[in-house]
Amino acid sequence: MLSSEFGFRIAGMFIFALVGARIGVDAAALFGLPIAVTSFIFALVGMLFGLIITPWITIRPVRFIRKNIGEMSIDVLFMALIGLLLGLLIGLLLAYPISLLDGPLGRILPAALTFVAAYLGLTIFSIRSREIWTFLRDQWGLKAARRNLAMSGDRELILDTSVLIDGRIVEIAETGFLGGTLIVPRFVLSELHQVADSSDPLRRARGRRGLAKLNELQRNEDVPLRIVEDDFEGVSEVDDKLVILAIQMEAPIITNDYNLNRVAEAQNVPVLNINLLANAVRAVFIPGESFPIHIIQEGKDPDQGVGYLEDGTMVVIAGGKHYMDRTVNVTVTRLINKPTGRMIFAELSNNSN
After folding, report:
1. How far apart are CA 164 and CA 172, in angstroms?
2. pTM
3. Angle subtended at Cα 310 by Cα 167 and Cα 157, rounded to the nearest 5 degrees
4. Which domains does the chain carry?
5. Quick check: 343 and 336 in contact, CB under 8 A?
């Protein structure tokens, strides 16, 4: 089955071939060549031009617009439409007196002015949508209609790339414990697209997982989410942009990136670390407590075995190397809690087989 882009290329090739042939007929006298020759040459040029350029003036702009609208939050989309309508109204009001001017100005300026006013309205209202919503809320007490009563907190929470790829944010947001609006900066979304388009299969899978999780958040009407267009020229690192945005918005960053955690805390930016949350809600085993574990691999040190609890906690078992692929009872000796996760050190219980 032919792709839509290929079909547009073929159609464009024939259309531009006809246009080129017609131009060739008119240009025959200019080049001093027979009409059939110039018509054939210009038709070939038109075919080549149509084959190359057609997708760029048809299907690709439509895809670009659909992609941006799909990624745009409802708040920004609503404000962009209001800005577009307001710009068109202003342009039309100014167009009539300008159309009374004599000469080409009276014919060209009204249309140009309407286009510029519509573009400015669309751009200004979409870029400053957050400030406009805040102003309306402060002045008239308006609330976003989609906010659930259980999640009516006024705070904003900025998501980074790692937390979207991780995916646990979807389940956490659905519980209603976050109590605020999730903010996804456009530069985070761009980084996700770069990861999803990577030549490395593992990175590509991680990026696509992050985009899928973002789509889940957008489809959930009970989870307030907004994509913001804020960016910072001269700053290349996404982590640095996140910290600057968090300072400007006075909002915490949700992440599971240990390095971003340290950078943000060094600049007094509040951080909500998903790994720390996971550690807090995991089943707690105290030293001396026993439980069964399936040993699946060797540890780094001699004679060690490694297993994992259902929540992903790593358990390092002294003397467990000889019990590979077996389930044994172990006794906890010590715990290590880190921002990157929790580790349990244990030894074989006396009743292990």
Report:
1. 12
2. 0.48
3. 25
4. 4-62 (no CATH), 72-135 (no CATH), 146-279 (3.40.50.1010), 284-348 (2.40.50.140)
5. yes
